[in-house]
Design goal:
single chain, mainly alpha, two-stranded antiparallel ribbon, elongated, HK97 gp10 family phage protein
């Protein structure tokens, strides 16, 4: 195999396979993040507004949700720039640093079932894979 052909093959592999892998990962990450945000039970909106997403580091910031009507929060605006800059070998971290997020996920609210985060992740992965098949 000539060196030129090998380079062409490697370039085609990188463009097609690795590009597809990045795209699928982005789709799944966006679906997972949005599902977690949407499935978070709302009282004041603080728990929902404090979901963070970042690459290669955990975002430990906290958000004051005052001014958000009835917990209305769309995390897409926060997630898109992060997910859009994702490259292979990056790690996507989704976090919420409120002290009561774990008890909330364990079922302390009657507004969402216990394990709502895990359920949102599973649904998001499935949705992302389905979208990837269609594209």
């Amino acid at each position: 195999m000539s060196a030129d052909f090998r380079r062409q093959l490697n370039k085609a592999y990188e463009e097609k396979v690795l590009g597809t892998q990045e795209k699928v990962t982005r789709l799944i990450a966006l679906k997972v993040f949005n599902n977690i945000v949407e499935n978070t039970p709302v009282d004041t909106g603080r728990a929902r507004a404090n979901w963070n997403i970042d690459l290669n580091t955990v975002d430990v910031s906290l958000v004051d949700p005052s001014g958000m009507e009835g917990g209305s929060y769309d995390g897409t605006e926060k997630a898109l720039p992060v997910i859009g800059s994702y490259k292979l070998n990056d790690t996507i971290y989704i976090s919420n640093n409120l002290p009561y997020i774990r008890p909330l996920n364990d079922g302390s609210s009657t507004k969402a079932p216990a394990g709502f985060v895990d359920a949102a992740v599973q649904i998001g992965v499935r949705q992302g894979k389905e979208l990837a098949k269609q594209s």
